[in-house]
Design the sequence.
C-alpha cells in the first residue's frame, strides 16, 4: 500500500462522487487510499489526508458482490461503523457524506455489532431514514428487515429507542416469501420482552397476523419447540400477558386463535391468562404485568375489580391515574366489602395483604384531608 507521502492528490470536484459505484476503478485514487486505510484502521492517516486533499476523499462508496444476489457496501463510513469509531463516523458525515445506501449499511453494521447507540444516533441526526427499505429503493431485493427489526432481533433496546425517537414506524411490515413480518413479531420470536413491551407502550398496534404469530411462538416455546432459546416458557408467558394487557387485541381474534391451537398444545398458564382477558377480568399487575403478587400467590385486587397489582408500590404508582376511573364499592373509610368483613372479624383496622387492597384514601401518600402523614403516624395522623 502506498504511504500518504507517496499518494498524489486526486482531488478534483468533477471526479469525486457520493454515489455508490460497482467498479473499484471508478473511485478516485484518494478515495481508494482512504477505503484501504479504513480497512486497516489507520484513522489518523485518513484524517490527515482528507485535511490536505479535501473531504471528498471520504465519499467513496464501493459495492461488492459477495454472493449470487448479495451486495456489500464498502466505504470509510461503513468501516468506521464496523470498528465502532464514532469520531470517524462524525467527521465523515459532517464533511457532507450523504449516500443513503452506505448510511443504511453503516447503521445495520453498528446495530449488529454493538448495543451502543452513539453511531446510530449520529447517522439519524445526519439524515438517515429510520424507515428505509432497500428493496423499495431498488438497492437490494433480498433485504428482509428494516433497521427497527434488526435492533429488535439483536435485543438492543437503546438502539430501538434511538430509531423510535427519530420516527421509526413500529407498525411497518415487510413481506418476504409470502410471510409478513413486523417489529412486534420479530421481537417476540427473539424473546426480547423488554423491546416488545417498549413497542407496545410507544403505540404499536398488533394486527391479526401479529397476534397469531406471537401466540404461535409462545405456545411452541412453552412446549420447548421454539428454536430460539431466549424465548423460554417464562418469557413466553410474560410476552402473552404483555400483548393482551398493553396491545389489547380484539377479543374475537384472541378467542379464535387460541381455539385454533390443539388442546395438547395449550399451556395452562397462557390458557388462564387468555380466559381472564376474554372475561374482562384482571390477569396481571397493571403496572408491570407480573402474574403473581410479591410474597403471595394471588394478585392484590383493587376494590373496583378492574385492575390488580403485584405490590403496594405498583398500586401507589398507578393510583394518581386510576383514581379518576376507580368506581369500587367503597365505604366512607375507603374500604371494600371484603375489608369490612376482615375488620369485623379481627376487630382491627383493614388488614394489609388481604384479598382486596383499598386504593382510595392514602394510596397516594396523603391523609383524609390531603395532607402528608408524619413520620411514625399513619395517614390519619394517629400513632401506630
Sequence:
Amino acid at each position: 500500500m502506498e504511504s500518504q507521502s507517496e499518494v498524489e492528490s486526486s482531488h478534483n470536484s468533477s471526479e469525486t462522487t457520493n454515489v455508490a459505484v460497482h467498479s473499484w476503478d471508478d473511485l478516485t485514487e484518494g478515495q481508494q487510499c482512504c477505503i484501504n486505510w479504513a480497512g486497516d484502521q489507520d484513522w489518523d492517516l485518513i484524517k490527515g489526508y482528507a485535511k490536505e486533499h479535501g473531504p471528498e476523499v471520504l465519499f467513496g462508496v464501493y459495492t461488492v458482490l459477495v454472493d449470487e444476489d448479495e451486495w456489500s457496501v464498502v466505504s470509510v463510513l461503513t468501516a468506521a461503523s464496523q470498528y465502532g469509531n464514532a469520531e470517524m463516523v462524525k467527521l465523515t458525515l459532517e464533511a457532507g457524506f450523504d449516500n443513503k445506501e452506505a448510511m443504511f449499511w453503516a447503521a445495520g453494521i453498528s446495530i449488529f455489532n454493538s448495543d451502543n447507540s452513539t453511531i446510530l444516533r449520529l447517522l439519524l441526526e445526519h439524515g438517515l431514514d429510520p424507515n428505509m427499505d432497500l428493496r423499495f429503493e431498488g438497492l437490494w431485493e433480498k433485504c428482509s428487515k428494516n433497521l427497527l427489526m434488526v435492533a429488535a432481533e439483536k435485543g438492543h433496546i437503546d438502539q430501538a429507542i434511538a430509531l423510535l425517537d427519530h420516527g421509526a414506524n413500529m407498525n411497518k411490515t415487510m413481506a418476504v416469501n409470502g410471510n409478513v413480518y413486523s417489529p412486534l413479531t420479530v421481537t417476540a420470536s427473539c424473546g426480547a420482552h423488554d423491546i416488545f413491551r417498549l413497542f407496545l407502550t410507544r403505540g404499536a398496534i398488533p394486527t391479526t397476523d401479529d397476534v397469531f404469530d406471537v401466540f404461535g411462538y409462545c405456545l411452541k416455546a412453552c412446549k420447548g419447540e421454539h428454536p430460539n432459546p431466549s424465548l423460554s416458557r417464562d418469557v413466553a408467558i410474560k410476552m402473552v400477558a404483555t400483548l393482551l394487557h398493553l396491545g389489547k387485541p380484539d377479543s374475537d381474534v384472541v378467542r379464535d386463535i387460541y381455539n385454533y391451537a390443539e388442546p395438547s398444545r395449550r399451556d395452562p398458564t397462557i390458557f388462564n391468562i387468555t380466559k381472564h382477558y376474554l372475561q374482562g377480568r384482571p390477569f396481571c399487575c397493571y403496572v408491570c404485568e407480573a402474574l403473581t403478587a410479591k410474597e403471595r400467590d394471588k394478585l392484590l385486587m383493587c376494590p373496583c375489580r378492574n385492575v390488580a397489582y403485584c405490590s403496594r408500590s405498583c398500586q401507589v404508582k398507578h393510583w394518581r391515574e386510576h383514581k379518576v376511573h376507580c368506581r369500587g364499592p367503597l365505604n366512607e373509610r375507603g374500604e371494600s366489602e371484603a375489608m369490612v368483613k376482615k375488620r369485623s372479624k379481627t376487630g382491627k383496622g383493614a388488614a394489609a395483604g388481604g384479598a382486596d387492597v383499598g386504593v382510595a384514601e392514602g394510596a397516594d401518600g396523603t391523609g383524609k384531608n390531603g395532607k402528608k402523614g408524619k413520620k411514625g403516624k399513619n395517614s390519619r395522623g394517629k400513632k401506630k
